[in-house]
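Here is one chain, start to finish.
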Amino acid sequence: RFSDSANSIYQFVWGDDAIKFGVKGSSLSETLSLKNGLVQDYDNETFTYNNSNRLVRVEDKYETTIVIWDGDKLVSISNENEDVTITYDKSCKSGYVPFIAQLIGFSYDHLLFTVHPEIIGTRTTKLPASITETDRNGTETLTCTYEFDKDGYVSKMIMKEAGGSTRTSTITWQ
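Its structure:
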């Protein structure tokens, strides 16, 4: 179980072929179907994996997202609205990069993919150095820096835009 910034407490029940979860105190619950430990569908999205069990495609009725890997480095994400390329220069010393699911486009209601990226084939220790996003409004490159907790795990990813503004994602490990 874990909580988010809205102080909701999520509870998970893990089975061999599914993960059932919901918010404590709410009657809402959802189920992720699993095959060989990988999510097959969730929230009307279908997931496709390569032979290395890396996520390569996410489809719903509105769009298809193609994800390209070079070994355990996510190098490209594309869909009808945007193309993203990622460069690297370092790896985590402890743990993994928890923000890959958000880079692919999963929103923060997919918190389970952040703390368990292996269930969607996105677990990696490679730290993005830059992220270039191209959409109908142009191209923007973000430079990435990181902060680590006392045990060496990534605790913050700071993406700085060329104009000086920043986007920050923070995670606290317990």
